């Protein structure tokens, strides 16, 4: 575990356990990060077993993820770091045309297979875009008239591959490595991550590139308190057996998942899944 992850996980763990001990309450009520001293005091107060069980509470609870209120819409600021709308002009077969586009980041996604437990590792998170897709017909101009009882936020909690945007100039496999640690809590060297293929997302609006990676992890690669996202991210890590994963791909399903997720699962089942027992 790197120092950064240790401090981050101690801070989050202590903030989760607001009633567990005085030091937890102290860290929880302040905006400062926890220190190694906090961790030491906490360990002496609650014993090492208390810390371990504390770390297990680290992953995001669905109630926190779905605690969504005060939804409303506004215009996109011109300095958005994530989405830049513009118009693309061209002449095709002698005819003037144009297309309205979004400049967005390219991205990576990773199929993670835990070989110790023979489980695929996925993430769940609340996706504003999916929620908007669900409610857009009756949300009103500013989004304030949404009936939250009719459309609970849980409807827009997606099941996805671990993924992330390419927002810094490092090899994409290293970005994949960071996402596997930050979102799912497995610390693996980049050499263990295999590049599978790349494809275009959002061909109607962005045409951004996504590269799919594959990594096999073991229980021993797990950093106890890592995973669940960094900063303000609320991500739940879930595991699916091969049988459960196969059921996701059944005809007639309507999934709250992006196509890249289904592609990744089907790629794994076709190319890497251990054969089903007769
Ligand atoms: N539009 C936006 N508005 C505001 N904040 C934003 C934002 N996009 C990203 N962010 C911020 O950037 C953080 C990091 O995002 P990630 O790298 O985890 O990508 P994400 O998982 O959203 O999408 C990844 O997973 C999905 C599903 O596979 C892919 O479609 C996608 O290309 C890939 O990056 C988010 O937690 C959020 O704070």
UniProtKB/TrEMBL annotation:
Keywords: Cytoplasm, Hydrolase, Magnesium. One of its GO terms (cellular component) is cytoplasm. One of its GO terms (molecular function) is UDP-sugar diphosphatase activity. It is found in: Cytoplasm. It comes from the Eukaryota. Its EC number is 3.6.1.45. InterPro entries: NDP_pyrophosphatase, NUDIX_hydrolase-like_dom_sf, NUDIX_hydrolase_dom. It is an enzyme of class 3 (hydrolase). GO terms for biological process: nucleoside phosphate metabolic process; ribose phosphate metabolic process. The keyword Protease does not apply. Its cofactor is Mg(2+). It catalyses: UDP-sugar + H2O = UMP + alpha-D-aldose 1-phosphate. Residues 103-262 form the Nudix hydrolase domain. Hydrolyzes UDP-glucose to glucose 1-phosphate and UMP and ADP-ribose to ribose 5-phosphate and AMP. The physiological substrate is probably UDP-glucose. Poor activity on other substrates such as ADP-glucose, CDP-glucose, GDP-glucose and GDP-mannose. Homodimer. PANTHER family: UDP/ADP-SUGAR PYROPHOSPHATASE (PTHR11839), URIDINE DIPHOSPHATE GLUCOSE PYROPHOSPHATASE NUDT14 (PTHR11839:SF15). This is Uridine diphosphate glucose pyrophosphatase NUDT14. It comes from Culex quinquefasciatus (Southern house mosquito). The lineage of its organism: Eukaryota, Metazoa, Ecdysozoa, Arthropoda, Hexapoda.
């Amino acid at each position: 575990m790197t120092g950064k992850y240790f401090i981050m996980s101690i801070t989050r763990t202590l903030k989760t356990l607001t009633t567990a001990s005085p030091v937890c309450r102290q860290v929880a009520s302040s905006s400062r990060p926890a220190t190694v001293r906090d961790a030491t005091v906490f360990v002496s107060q609650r014993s090492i077993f208390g810390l371990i069980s504390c770390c297990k509470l680290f992953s995001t609870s669905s109630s926190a993820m779905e605690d969504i209120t005060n939804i409303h819409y506004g215009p996109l600021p011109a300095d958005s770091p994530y989405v830049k709308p513009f118009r693309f002009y061209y002449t095709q077969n002698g005819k003037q045309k144009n297309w309205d586009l979004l400049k967005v980041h390219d991205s990576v996604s990773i199929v993670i297979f835990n070989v110790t437990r023979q489980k695929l590792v996925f993430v769940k998170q609340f996706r504003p875009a999916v929620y908007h897709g669900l409610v857009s017909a009756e949300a009103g101009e500013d989004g304030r008239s949404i009936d939250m009882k009719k459309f609970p936020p849980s409807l827009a909690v997606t099941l996805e591959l671990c993924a992330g945007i390419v927002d810094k100039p490092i090899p994409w496999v290293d970005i994949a490595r960071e996402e596997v640690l930050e979102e799912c809590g497995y610390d693996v060297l980049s050499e263990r991550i295999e590049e599978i293929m790349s494809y275009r997302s959002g061909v109607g609006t962005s045409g951004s590139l996504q590269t799919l990676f594959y990594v096999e992890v073991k229980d021993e690669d797990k950093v106890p308190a890592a995973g669940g996202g960094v900063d303000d991210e609320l991500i739940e890590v879930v595991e699916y057996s091969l049988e459960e994963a196969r059921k996701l791909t059944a005809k007639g399903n309507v999934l709250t998942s992006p196509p890249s997720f289904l592609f990744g699962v089907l790629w794994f089942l076709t190319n890497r899944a251990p054969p089903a027992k007769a």
